[in-house]
Each structure stands twice: as C-alpha cells, then as structure tokens.
Design goal:
Length: 425
C-alpha cells in the first residue's frame, strides 16, 4: 500500500510539475515576444499610431510597458515557485493539518481552516503588490495612494473576504454533508443566486467601503449623458462619480445593477481627461454592452463554467489519488479537495484564455459599433480611445500572439480600423 501511495505521489508530482513548467514557459515566451516587438518600434511609432502620442509620451509608454512586463515576469516566476513549494515540496499538508488540529473538524472549523490557509498563502504576494503600487506605478506618475490607504484597503479586503467568504464556504460544506451525491448542484445554484444578488447590492454596500460615490452635479454634462441614456433605451436611476483619483490616475467607466437599481459610474479621472462629447461616446459604448445583451451572456457563460468546475471538484473528491498525490489523506475529504482544486485549476484554465478573449473582443467591437451609431459618427469614440491610451501609457505595439492570448479588448489600431470601416449612420 505504501509503494502504491509512493507511485501515485510520484506520478501526480510529475504531471503537476510538467503542467506548471508549461504554463510558466508559455507566459515567459509570450512576454519575451511582446518585449521584443515593443523594442523593435521603440525609436519610432509605426504607421497608424503616430497620431496617438507625441514622441516623448510614446517613449514613456515604451518604458512603462517594458517595466511592467519585466516586473510581471518576475512575479510570475515567484508565484510559480511558491505554488511548487506548497504542492510540489509538500508544505501545504502539514500547514493544513496543523490548522485542522487547532480549529477542529466541525463544519465551522473546516471552514476556518480554509480561510486561514487562504490568508497565509496570500502573504507572500504582499511585497509585490506594494512594489507595484509605490515603485512601478509611482515611477510613471500613476500612483495616488498612500501607505496608510494601501494598508487600510488591504485590511478592508481581508475583512470583507471573511465576512462574505466564510458563510459561503460553510454553506458549500454543509451541502456536502446534506446531499453527498448532488451537493455540487446545490452549491452551484446557491453561489449563482448570490452573484445575482451582489450585482444589485455591491454598488450600495461594497463599493462605498473603498470609494466615495457622489451623484453627478446638475449641469450640461449630466443632462447630455442622461439624454443619451434615455435615447438609447438605457433607463438608469443615477449617474455617480467615483473618486478613483485617490488611488490612481488610471480611469474607467461602467454601469452596475439591474432594472431600477441600474447606475452609471464614471471615474473622476475620466471626466477630467475627456471632453463631453467623448464622455458621451464612452457611455454609449458601455450602454452598447447592455443593449447587445453582453452582460447576461457573460453571466450565463460564467454560470456554465462554475457548474463544470463544481462537477469536476465532485469527481476529484472521490478519487483517492487526488489526495495522496499531493500528500493528503482521502479522509481529509471535501475541504482539502476544494483547496487543491483552487490551487491547480489555473494550470488548466490558462490554456483556454484565448477562447474567452475572442468572445470578449467581439463584444467590444459590437459595443463600439453601437456607440458609433448612437452618436452618428466615429470621431468622438476614436478620440476618447486615443486619449485613454495616451493617459494610461498603453502599449500601442503589442505582439499579435501576446494580444491574442492576453487581451480581452482589441488593440487601438484594430478598434479604429473597425470603426472607420462602418457605414455612415
């Protein structure tokens, strides 16, 4: 029995190591291709993007892209090393069993073990988050946060994760005890309902914990945006301005909620960077996602993926090799299975990222076309996209393989080309 367990561990460790090496190797190769392409155009922007930035800004965007890529590559290797330490070298089982000895085997105790392991595993990544915020982003003028705010956000996020995650995990483990065969269907349904509820409640309960949302004051901009929303069939309860500038100079816009709870949210940085006509174009693009049914489609896709994930977990939890291969005991049961799946699933889902990106990019083209038709011209959206790329020092020359694998949005050149190809409204 001992020899069989040893063979299982060797086989699983080999497969795990190969999958980890393949993922890290692919990421490293894609990063290298992207940096090579950026450096090839570092001295002069290629045709199609020369009008987006002046020479000085373009040079800074190249430096920012290369710095982010190098930083991300080192962080990727660091994260992979920790994953191998936890699972390949067997650090996780003694930590898990030690915590289980403290919290016990009750439903609440098993949930506490999972939460504690999650918090411990998050600690090695904190230095990278700090350096990214206060070194990399600050170097290029994007960071507006303070150490106090960074720590406060960290503590709030951890507390919020416990307040929300602990009951949900406890509910999942209760389903396992209540319905040992079909628990995964009950757990999937409960989490899907929870996600729908949070879509409506998050703007009122979660977002205000981190940012201040204030109603857009009366004026020409508010009148124009509300008129656009009514004209395009997007009835919303309010337009809010988020103080995103207290953390970063990056900008964004989105809408949240359902029905009468639907709200438009604009970053204050976005309002400062764009003209009123360009803000209309950005809002029309976001409305385009709603009118083209992208939100329910993505939610349905997410629900399908989570259903498959729960089904896979239910199957793996019944396989002794899944436990012994990572030096656990089959008696550890579902809590260990959930933990292991959460840690290794990315080794498989990583290879399917391009499929999701293809779908997402199609949605972006459709939303761009909707915005162009809503405003009757392409110029405002093109102008907004150019300014956003300039202000964010975005990479204007990504390698095609890199953008295909990682970009959920088309490149600026691709979006401009598609907008200019649209027939006159």
């Amino acid at each position: 029995m001992g020899n069989l367990s040893g063979m299982t561990w060797t086989l699983v460790l080999t497969v795990f190591s190969v999958l980890l090496a393949l993922r890290v190797g692919a990421e490293t190769w894609l990063d290298a291709l992207n940096r090579q392409n950026v450096r090839a155009h570092a001295n002069s922007a290629p045709d199609g993007v020369r009008e987006v930035m002046d020479a000085g800004t373009y040079a800074r965007s190249v430096q920012y892209t290369l710095a982010k890529s190098t930083f991300g590559e080192w962080q990727g290797w660091y994260d992979a090393a920790w994953l191998f330490i936890w699972l390949g070298l067997g650090l996780l089982p003694p930590v898990y069993h030690g915590l289980a000895g403290i919290f016990g085997g009750s439903l609440w105790g098993q949930t506490a073990v999972l939460c504690a392991v999650g918090l411990i595993m998050a600690l090695p990544g904190l230095p990278w988050s700090w350096v990214s915020q206060f070194r990399l982003e600050a170097k290029f003028g994007f960071n507006k946060s303070t150490p106090k705010l960074w720590v406060t956000d960290l503590l709030k996020g951890a507390a919020l994760g416990l307040v929300i995650g602990y009951p949900l995990l406890c509910l999942v483990l209760w389903f396992v005890r209540w319905q040992p065969t079909w628990w995964w269907l009950w757990a999937w349904a409960a989490l899907f309902i929870f996600q729908l509820v949070m879509v409506a409640l998050a703007p009122r309960l979660i977002m205000p914990l981190f940012n201040k949302l204030t109603p857009m004051p009366e004026g020409e901009l508010r009148t124009r945006l509300l008129a656009l929303a009514e004209r395009t069939g997007f009835h919303c309860s309010a337009i809010d301005v988020m103080d995103g500038s207290k953390r970063s100079s990056h900008s964004n816009a989105f809408f949240t909620g359902f029905g009468r709870f639907r709200r438009i949210v604009l970053f204050d940085t976005l309002i400062a960077q764009l003209s009123e006509r360009e803000l209309e174009a950005v809002l029309a693009h976001e409305i385009g996602h709603y009118r083209r049914g992208h939100v329910p489609k993505m939610m349905a896709f997410s629900a399908l993926m989570s259903l498959i994930a729960f089904g896979v977990i239910a199957w793996l939890a019944q396989q002794d090799w899944f436990y012994t291969g990572f030096r656990f005991n089959p008696a550890d049961g579902m809590p260990a299975a959930l933990l292991l799946f959460a840690m290794i699933s990315e080794l498989f889902t990583f290879w399917f990222h391009p499929l999701g990106n293809i779908w997402s990019r199609r949605h972006e083209y459709e939303a761009d076309a909707f915005a162009r038709n809503a405003l009757g011209e392409s110029a405002p959206l093109i102008g907004a996209l150019r300014k956003l790329h300039e202000k964010n020092l975005s990479n204007l020359t990504p390698h095609p393989a890199y953008s295909f694998f990682h970009y959920s949005h088309p490149t600026l050149v691709e979006r401009e080309s598609a907008l200019r190809a649209l027939a006159p409204a």
